[in-house]
Task: structure prediction
Amino acid sequence: MITCPGRITDCRLLVLESGMRLNQEEVQHIAELARLALSDREKALYQEQLSAILQHFERLQELDTEAIPPTASVLPLRSVMRADEPSPSSLQEDILANAPAADEGCFKVPAVME
Amino acid sequence: MKLCQLTIHEARERLGAGDFSALELTEAVLERILAVDNDVKAYITLTPEQALAQARDADLRRAAGEDTPLLGIPLAIKDVLCTEGTPTTCGSRILEDFVPPYDGTAVARLRAAGAVILGKTNTDEFAMGSSTENSAFFTTRNPWDLDRVPGGSSGGSAAAVAADECLGALGTDTGGSVRQPASLCGVVGLKPTYGRVSRYGLVAFASSLDQIGVLSKDVTDAALLLGVIAGHDPRDSTSMDVPVPDYVSALDNGFGRETDLRGVRVGVPKEYFVEGMQPDVDEAVRTAVDVLTGLGAEVREVGLPHTDYALPVYYLIAPAEASANLARYDGVRYGLRVSDDGLLEMYKTTRGHGFGSEVKRRIMLGTYALSAGYYDHYYLKAQKVRTLIKADFDAAFEEVNIIVAPTAPSTAFPIGEKIADPLQMYLSDIFTLSMNLAGICGLSLPCGFDADGLPIGLQIMGPAFGEEQVLRVAHVYEQATDWHARRPPL
Result:
């Protein structure tokens, strides 16, 4: 298993068989990464739809972008900073008002560690 | 004319003259909502008591000498924008009971300008869609034909404006979600330049593409609303510190003389007149271009050669960004929580049940495009082609001041027609996606009706921070035609 830094905490190299068609295992893996519980019907549907969409998107490879820089943002701004001055945030009770479960001023969640 | 049929600028003038009170105006609009919203279904949440209280307050403030730009004007807000104390669902079960403890900046600016907030309008879930059929709650109907979609994702706001259920509304536009529903509902829809309006308080879908926009009955109102919400916000690090001009005065003091377009160079991109477009749409837009010529504009063809690639670029970048932005809906701090049986189970079942199918589809697509082994082939590739698309516009705006094109390839389609085929639905946005990718501004306004009496939209695009040019051309065109005076037969 190859670990990658940043946004995804566990991943494997995926191998596509026969062109851009995703197989069941790949669909299951993406659902795991995205933390989505899917029914068998949904998995079959997304397998079909995502394969068709990705096949359509292969046309991007027609373009030679070797020398082209990527655009992450259209703005010229980078690393916008502000002065390190504290200012009021929302009240704890207002924030906890939306909590699915709360106790003693904290969010209550299932155990993260055994 | 009924009070609810007024435009914002007409209402402002008459409120100032004492023709009626803000209370009477809001009462009239609430009455209209009561009469038609069972059919149109534009609103998810109505806040009539609060609206009436704000209207009474506006009358007191006016009596005390205040004259803020939107004092007493009743408006609607798309339900992806945070409104303090009022549920903000994003059209999703996962946020069905979420009540924000704060107002987003754009909403706060409307309130500071004296606006009355009527309620929250329907949207495709998390702004993902082109028909408002992806709302978890119900589908909004097009006021021009209740069996047809209003467009999306700001379908609720567009329908509410078209049906006189508000005098104006806020929407959001990530790939066309203000302009396309404006086109399908026969109203004005403006997407500002990326960075013109603060995104603080806008529930994020695709952070490099999202922009809050305005929907209105005419161009003057759009200029008014933009002037109120635009401007730098230290709480949004992607908002630009660019001065906000007086957009309303720019309507009459722009190119040429007051009523014509002499000196304006208009570009018409050949790539935007494609096979498969509805013939009425093609014809109405070409006729509109002739009107611009008649008004003195110099029209010439321009090339936007990478137009065809906008769809795959958008549908890789937007879902990728969405997969990151929607990771926060995990049952922990707010929104739906389905189970407590272990952390992973909580995440997966909450998200599996709480999100609708289009949202899940896009999260899957985005996750895949970012995953190891595929990041370069999909996401990075899309970002590079995005550079080419932006460069097309930069080059075109060296030759012309504005670009005109159709807003949508067809008029409003029947409810249910495209929902089973995601790609078909995605194609509704082919004429609007590129502007979000390039970050430029664009507006849609009515330019005709098809054989079934359904509205057709003309899209007017300008360079980054070129809203004055866009509004000016739109205003002159609007005043030379009377499409904007027609109302749906509700």
